[in-house]
Design goal:
The protein is an alpha/beta fold. The chain is built from 14 helices and ten strands. The chain has a ten-stranded mixed sheet, with helices on both faces. The radius of gyration is 20 Å and the shape is globular. The two termini are 28 Å apart. 51% of the residues are buried.
């Protein structure tokens, strides 16, 4: 299967999973077709152990229908990867990516991204992979509602529905028990999507496993640390949060209330999805104290009212009882997301009586953590093959 497939013209289009059409396919474009040796070479180039590669893969950028932060119909994109192993029934992996400011850096678009390498790795072990770009990234319209719990879940669950519909075109069946894993922003996303699947968000899919990597599970503490410049790239992280949440919830009336001059005139336009992280970093001061007003930084350090309520939703992504074991992965050397975030999540899981485990990857930085963790996640998933 190659080229671009359109639901309007294909001889056997995927049927919408629901009357609303969420999860139905708009188009599918082949972006990768590799044999096993080529997959291994891609992984090695990305700095990821390739010993577990068994099969070649085909990957498509799939555009599907979902709903936006305003509840209205929209579209989003994802990378769907299928192994070339001839098996009809495939385990299902949902891979949820980390913080991405540039829409072109996601797995469905950027051939060199670590997230595409992660999806190729999982698929090369014989699994089908759904790697959503989330809203406003990839080829999806609009801006990304960074950290919005509701659309994080709906875009990811609708991506699974679209992946299932896509697999049916190739006469493949996806196992209903989804193995959910994700990195950084994708860590809390893993827990939120897992909780939604366990609670029956989809009539077919169920939760099969949870493997979050280096997630900021204590968002309030993370943003407060960014306000105090105790996080690598603190101003960029906090500015992304501020501009996205202002669009979602209205954090300030004018940019000047949150940002110092002259940045108040330009900062919002930088986070439109069309600027690369390097461009944004070059246009902003490195320290939060030089970018934000003292009043706004105090608001972040000591949130009240609706802001506190909104942040609490992301402080409690681990505060439930998964019916499957949770394996957390983090590295004590991570200076972007502190290792304490993993302990914070583990404490919540333990308090709820959930079976859990935390693996310290070692003295690695943030991005090094995910590259080292991915083969471990594969081994975790291998132990629960159905």
């Amino acid at each position: 299967m190659s080229g671009t497939w359109s639901a309007a013209s294909h001889s056997s289009p995927a049927k919408p999973e629901r009357s609303s059409g969420t999860g139905s396919i708009v188009s599918a474009t082949l972006v990768v077709d590799l044999d096993a040796k080529e997959v291994a070479a891609r992984l090695e180039k990305a700095g990821i152990e390739a010993a577990q590669v068994r099969y070649g893969v085909r990957a498509h950028r799939v555009v599907y229908r979902t709903r936006g932060a305003d509840g209205r119909p929209t579209t989003a994109s994802q990378l769907v990867v299928i192994p070339k192993n001839g098996k009809r029934d495939l385990q299902t992996v949902s891979w949820l990516h980390g913080t991405t400011v540039y829409r072109g850096d996601v797995a469905s678009v950027n051939d060199a991204s670590t997230d595409r390498a992660a999806a190729l790795l999982f698929a090369s072990t014989g699994r089908a992979v759904s790697a959503p770009d989330y809203l406003g990234l990839g080829v999806g319209p609009g801006t990304h509602p960074y950290g919005d719990p509701r659309t994080t879940v709906t875009a990811s669950v609708d991506a699974l529905r679209a992946a299932r519909a896509f697999a049916r075109q190739d006469r493949r069946t996806l196992d209903r028990h989804v193995l959910v894993s994700g990195f950084s922003q994708g860590g809390p996303a893993t827990m939120m999507v897992g909780r939604a699947l366990q609670q029956g968000a989809d009539p077919y899919f169920r939760l099969g496993a949870l493997a979050p990597v280096a997630g900021p599970f204590d968002l309030s503490a993370f943003e407060a640390a960014a306000a105090d410049d105790k996080v690598v790239r603190s101003s960029l992280y906090l500015a992304y949060f501020a501009t996205a949440w202002n669009r979602l919830y209205g954090l300030y009336d004018t940019p000047g209330q949150a940002f110092r001059a002259p940045y108040d005139k330009t900062v919002e336009s930088l986070f439109d999805g069309d600027h690369k992280a390097s461009e944004i970093a070059a246009a902003l001061p490195a320290a939060s104290k030089d970018l934000f007003t003292p009043e706004f930084l105090d608001t972040v350090r000591h949130p009240t009212g609706k802001l506190r309520q909104r942040m609490n939703a992301l402080d409690t992504t681990c505060d439930w009882h998964p019916d499957v074991p949770v394996h957390l992965y983090h590295a004590r050397g991570d200076k972007d997301v502190a290792f304490e975030n993993a302990r914070y999540c583990q404490r919540q899981l333990t308090a709820n009586g959930a079976v859990n485990r935390l693996t310290d990857i070692g003295d690695l930085d943030h991005n090094g953590t995910v590259r080292a963790a991915l083969p471990l996640v594969v081994r975790q998933f291998d132990a629960i093959r159905r």
